[in-house]
Amino acid sequence: MDMLWLTLAAFILLAYTLEAITGFGSIVIALSLGAMLLPIDQLLPVLVPLNICMTGYLTWRHRAMIDRRLLLGMILPGMLVGTVIGYALLPWLDATLAKRLFGALVLWFAARELWRLRHAAVQPVRPMWLSRLLSLGAGVSHGLFASGGPLLVFALAGTQLDKARLRATLVSVWFTLNSLLTLAFLLDGRLLPALPQIAAYAPLLLLGVWLGEYLHRRCNEQHFRVAIYLLLLITGTLLLSPWSLL
Description:
Layout: H1 2-22, H2 26-34, H3 40-61, H4 68-89, H5 95-119, H6 128-145, H7 149-155, H8 163-187, H9 191-216, H10 221-240
Helix pairs in contact: 1-2, 1-9, 2-3, 3-8, 3-9, 4-6, 4-8, 5-10, 6-7
């Protein structure tokens, strides 16, 4: 088990480094790789509190760029309701089924992003009702796996937000929802046993941010995005494979 948690440390460092380079969600990457080693319900109480540190810092630093009208009027209402639904469903899901569902989500998102990058596809503007419905689904995914990013980014496709405002708005969503999930983990008794792992992994966040910013100034961001999506594509396939022992 110690070796498994040590390997998870490498995955966490990779995930936060890649997020610092590309802005991509660290939990999706860390949970995708970590789910090949440990059950999802053991990973979430570690990864979610760690995520608060990075998103809290980014939310405060870029608070002036947050689109509060979009955040409060469209994103958070559906995401909050969906997160509660997803959190309530998690104890009823078989561990193998949960892993397969998460694998399908990761596989879909990675394949979609690779196709979009390959074809330079323009995101269509969606009607508000569909964006709200997708936000609800993103909340359910976040409640189950703390990984609502793929569906929420899909829901917000075609918005008029520039890159900086969109990123600031999204990290404020993750900070809000992951704070609530951390409180839920505290109340259901899963947070306290995870505190030693959280404390042990916390320095990796600083290293990941520093390393990511260093690489961001020297490397092509799109190449890193392609590498991430390819990695997630392989991971999603492994999570779905019938011969997987995970």
